[in-house]
Amino acid sequence: MHQLLRDAVFIGLARTAPVYRLFSIDDRYPAMVMANNYEDGFSLFGEIYDISSSLWPTIFENERRLGLYRGSIWLNDGTMMFGILSVRELCEGYPDISSFGGWKEYRASLTRRTVK
């Protein structure tokens, strides 16, 4: 849903603290959850945006339809930001793509597999 961010200001790339798991929902969008056991978590790449308070309701509405919600995301430098997390049950039966390190890295691997 990057199109919803066209009015947001891109701040930069970041990595989460190593306490999350990432799933691919039909290769259409990522779903990130807190790992059940922190030792089983991964540090994942993500993007940081400055999102206006007037844009959040639109993002919430679209994300909520997918089973996603606004929650606390811990970064690898110890700071906390609000971001989008998934309801754990949504991820059941979908591939865990945490080892790729992020959604963009996973999507790039699909392109490489298609080209071969």
Q: Report the helical percentage.
A: 10-25%
Q: State the fourth-level CATH superfamily.
A: Gamma-glutamyl cyclotransferase-like
Secondary-structure element pattern, one letter each: EEEEHEEHH
Unreliable segments of 5+ consecutive residues: none
Straight-line N-to-C gap? 28 Å
- CATH fold name: Hypothetical upf0131 protein ytfp
Number of domains: 1
Mean pLDDT: 90
Strand-pairing-aware structural class: alpha+beta
Entry summary:
23% of the residues lie in helices and 34% in strands. The chain is an alpha+beta fold and 116 residues long. The protein has one domain: Hypothetical upf0131 protein ytfp (Roll).
Describe, in plain words, how this protein is organized in 3D.
There is one protein chain. This protein has 3 helices and 6 strands, in the order E-E-E-E-H-E-E-H-H. The chain is an alpha+beta fold. The chain has a single domain, classed as Hypothetical upf0131 protein ytfp (Roll), CATH 3.10.490.10.
How do the helices and strands line up, and which of them pair or pack?
Blueprint: E1 9-15, E2 20-25, E3 29-34, E4 45-50, H1 56-65, E5 68-74, E6 80-86, H2 88-91, H3 103-115
